[in-house]
Design goal:
The structure is a homodimer of 235-residue chains.
Chain A (H helix, E strand, L loop, with lengths): L5 E4 L8 H15 L7 H10 L1 H9 L8 H15 L6 H8 L11 H8 L4 E6 L3 H11 L7 E2 H4 L6 H10 L7 E5 L2 H9 L3 E4 L22 E2 L3 H7 L3
Parallel strand pairs in A: 1-2, 1-4, 2-3, 4-5, 5-6
Helix pairs in contact in A: 1-2, 2-4, 6-11
Chain lengths: 235, 235
């Protein structure tokens, strides 16, 4: 890790608790549409299940690069139609902004403020610039720049997502470290030459989570949370 | 201005005093190369004179999009060779970073901190993401995201620079206001449909400045500095 000058972060799951935040926004939507028989967490999970297939259309080249706000909006409509909810476009537009207003895990702000003194900090998320910037503005996340799929024009885990981000930073890939709660993301980053740090988020998918509970490979750094990461990196 | 939700800013000249900052970095370089016969401000001006021609190669399509750090580095070499200075590549690399370490005008930080409460704030500069982010990190400029030529993949005053920025922001062009000290930049922004605000910076080019001393068109807002801009926009 000695040569690392920038830390770039996976966001959904690693920095913010997307599942609770999305469910919190879905709950009043269900009340407004008279569907309190449905579970908001189950719908958040259903919405999220459409995430990878939608990006795969772009990764495969079947669709030109399309920012995540657009994919989220299409996916939301599918999920609601499948439940027989025929909501007005403006209500779906509003609910789509749930992804802009997610809360960080409790260790994130203190950890990032400490890390920021020594490192250049940016998200490397599949979220688009506006989504990540609105989230940061609302929660006070101290990014130095908003990077990720949109400026890189590629969705993780494609190598271009990692390599174009290092290029924008004017750094060699090994000067950039990806921090993530997902072993698969870290595997792709390592393959592209980045340094890797794993932080477990064992309730990202709820209390019954079975994946990404521990580091599955010898990552360059493993820490319990962002505060311990800061401590281990001398910040 | 009532519909405006984002303020985007020209940076070189409008937010930061590039001429003093670049001259400040050139001065010790001249000492180190035994050329104290040369004037650091004159060299800063000479370096800046290469700026538009270098971008014009990209705007014309003769060259693919190339970020400003690369153009600045090439231009610096030309300027130094013209003076008979044969500097080491690493010394030119270091001097090129002068553009990452420019100081804001004295009203900027207070004005932006006030404007930030009500508006989404971002640079809309021809500077690249890393340059603008390093500048902001050093000076404490509170941008919500780093926008501009690199994410828009177009150099001002091409319409795509303004329109792609509005698109990234998920806003109509008239919901975005360009703040600039340059009438030409504002003319191009207005043509693209953006709102416009003029702030004079009458010593950008030194005490003998003859251009952009006043607003030349009826811009949507004209203010003496960023603090007055904040006051006029109710922040």
């Amino acid at each position: 890790m000695n040569q690392v000058r920038a830390l770039v972060f996976d966001v959904f799951g690693t920095v913010v608790d997307w599942r609770s935040g999305v469910a919190r926004a879905i709950a009043p939507f269900l009340v407004a549409h008279g569907r309190t028989d449905l579970d908001a967490f189950a719908l958040a999970d259903a919405w999220r299940r459409q995430y990878q297939p939608a990006m795969e259309e772009v990764r495969s080249g079947r669709r030109p690069f399309t920012r995540l706000d657009v994919l989220h909006r299409e996916n939301l409509e599918k999920v609601m139609v499948a439940q027989g909810i025929n909501a007005a476009a403006q209500d779906l537009d509003a609910l789509n902004l749930a992804w802009h207003a997610l809360d960080p895990w409790p260790d994130v702000l203190l950890g990032l403020h400490r890390l920021r003194r020594r490192f250049f900090l940016a998200p490397l998320s599949n979220g688009n610039i506006l989504l990540l910037a609105n989230m940061a503005k609302r929660a006070g996340i101290p990014w130095d720049a908003i990077l990720g799929a949109e400026p890189a024009r590629a969705y993780k885990p494609q190598p271009e997502a990692y390599l174009n981000t290092a290029d924008i930073l004017g750094m060699r890939p090994d000067e950039v470290c990806l921090v993530a709660a997902h072993n698969g993301d870290l595997r792709a980053a390592r393959k592209a030459g980045l340094a890797t740090a794993f932080i477990p988020r064992v309730t990202e998918h709820g209390t019954g989570q079975t994946i990404d509970l521990t580091a599955e490979d010898p990552w360059d750094c493993v820490a319990d949370d962002f505060i311990e990461l800061a401590r281990r990196l001398g910040c």
